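Fold this sequence, please.
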Amino acid sequence: MSSSDSEVNFQRDIYSVSRLNSEVRSVLEGSFPLLWVEGEISNLARPASGHIYFTLKDPQAQVRCAMFRMKRQLLRFQPENGLKVLIRARVGLYEGRGEFQLVAEHMEPAGEGNLQQAFDALKLKLQQEGLFDSTHKKPLPLLPKRIGIITSPSGAAVRDVLSVLQRRLPAVPVLIYPVVVQGEEAPRSILNALRLAEQRQDCDLLILTRGGGSLEDLMAFNDEAVARSIHALTIPLISAVGHEVDFTIADFVADRRAPTPSVAAELATPDKQEILDRLNSLQRRIRLGTLRHLASNRQTLQALGKRLERMHPDMRLQQRQQYLDELAMRLLRSIRSQMEQGEVRTGLLASRLNAVIPTHRINQQRELFNGLKRRLLLAVDSRLRIKRQGLGLAIGKLDTLSPLATLHRGYSITRLLPERNVLRDTSQAKTGDKLETRVSNGTVISTVETTVPL
């Protein structure tokens, strides 16, 4: 072999089949975005892995497709051979066989794309008109008097709702408005039921519900007339259409949306145990409030009783008498003090006189002293007489105010035994009652023979 042939062999870039398929796959996946492809399913295979493999075909061509388990679990229907579908897929290559294929990310029955577009357009329109605004949402009643259920009477949804209502609050009556929930007649049937419920006003809460289904199955709940009728209701409405992943226009317009019929029933009614717990709590609060109120009133009555005791005439008389006794003692102390001062002063003068004055002047001064003494005694006696007169007047006034003085004037106080309540009216006494009558010098016990009202 020549050297030129060796250089040519060295410079060749020889692909293995695996490398070729890998690079072709990279080129395909990098050249196409996610595509929407429509066709008919054939050669459907469901291996144990949970993935599905099928051929998507039209009258002129076909392409191999794969949908892996994580995406397949999100499907709301079961793919079947012969079913026309719309898939959203990535363009790729299965390297093991070198086959061109589509890897499906989403699948829906053909025709649902148009339904979805109509759904999105109506949703945007009603949203812009404000039908979804929270300001229009009516609060649900805490304890509904009657619940209306708008649904198919033979579906599983009504059984779920009734089962939950019976368990949570069996005392609440339920009225079923039977409607068609699927097909051409469904929107009109639902619309008539809504209008009838609004007209009759015999329920204070409505539940609009049905089981799950495809977008086409739920189209009655995406009807514009139905949505506007729900918005115009004066009765609160809970929408529970389909499963958790299903959303309808009715859900957005309703006052509350429930992911399932059972949850709608739970939203509509409080649990009976919660009600009992709340009633017990209120009862405890009322009992405590009553006890606090009684305790407060008891303290007020005790304070008023003490005030009455302080204002009783006996207490005032005692205070006046104590005040008079204090004045008398102060007067006597003052008189004694003046007399003692006079005696001391007289003694001093006598001492001075004895020391400096002859005997004849002593006699004169003695006479003068005797005269002063008599005048002093007369003055003291006169002052004592005046004070005694004032004291007598004060005592007289006290006697005038004393209940005993009233008794001395001929009055008496009669009490009903054994309680010793003061008898103020003939209606307080009856024949046979014992009476205690207080007069000025004692007490008279008597028995009532008859009463003579004036």
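The chain has a mean pLDDT of 83. The first strand starts at residue 35 and ends at 45.
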